[in-house]
User: Fold this.
Amino acid sequence: MKKRTIVAGIALLLLAGGRLPAQEATGDPAARIEAIKAEYQQARTDFYQKYREATTDEERQETAKTSPSADRYGDELLAIARAADGGDVGMDALLWILQNIRTPDTQERALAIALDHYVGHQNAGGLCGSLLYSTAPSTLKILEQIIEVSEHNEARGIACYTLAQRLKSEAETASMLRASGPESEERIGITSYLGEEKATELLATDPAKLEAKAEKIFERVVADFGDVSYRRGTLAAAARGDLNELRNLAIGKMAPEIQGEDIDGVAFKLSDYRGKVVVLDFWGNW
Amino acid sequence: MYPHERSLVQRLENKPFALIGINSDGDKEALREVLEKENITWRSFWDGGTTSGPIATAWNVRGWPTIYVLDAQGRIRYRGVRGEAMDKAVDTLLAEVERDKAGD
Assistant:
């Protein structure tokens, strides 16, 4: 787990800034996007190497200041996306922005362009992966627009599923906010992530209502978009997993039995521990 | 994570408490080394060497670590609590056990 904390730390540092010499734009937007991807990838590789080679905390802190930022490509890629007017090159630019640039302002500008030109694109579903936890104000609007206007079943299904997942995760956040005190670490963390306004709104929202809304949309995903492929399965399988979680794994439900074997192949089950308070920890050493 | 869990398990050694892992690692031998090195004494289900094993799938787990805290009756009482919040959740439920015992 320690390893992951370090990687997360570096990811945060990557967002913090750092500048590289800019290159001249070429006339071909597709080639320009490839060049940007390659340049940024190289800068990251170099940075990670330098970071790994640092031997003292002080050196690591100094190195962290030089972390490459994707922000510097924002304006150029936004211009490419706008000019491409719904074409594949523009979609590629938008996807890269949403995946790599976390500045809310740039994300919002990318979504505005997406709303104008790309909701009908056949890969609009690809945008949704970046919209699951996005705090940009237009996130909901774009998901709703894809569901409403797209002629591509896959894009509509993925947008619908993403919408349901967002509601489910908002329900979780709402209950976490309710459970934590005003000065608690959790409350402060969530508020700084979501922004004061959204956090206040969620605190005033009944988590059960959000869950009920999410449940309805997951059901729609199963009924209307069930056969769309998603990850290693279908949207129906994914949405059924979420429905199972909402219905059977919610706070207050009896924990489903777990039967299995430990690392040494010895069989045991969760109910062996009845009478004890149990922390169930789904973990992996990565 | 490990040091925190270790201290929780040590602190509650004589209490009606158990930390149970569901491990989704791919390599059992590498995992054995981690258990040894990190002094992980609590028991884990081996979920078939994949993140899409039967237990993680049944519990719809898509991010790791995922934490559930169950009361002594086996009811789900908390999810997603970490660090101090996990300790507080466990202490609250242990106090319930004490209270129920006193009430008997």
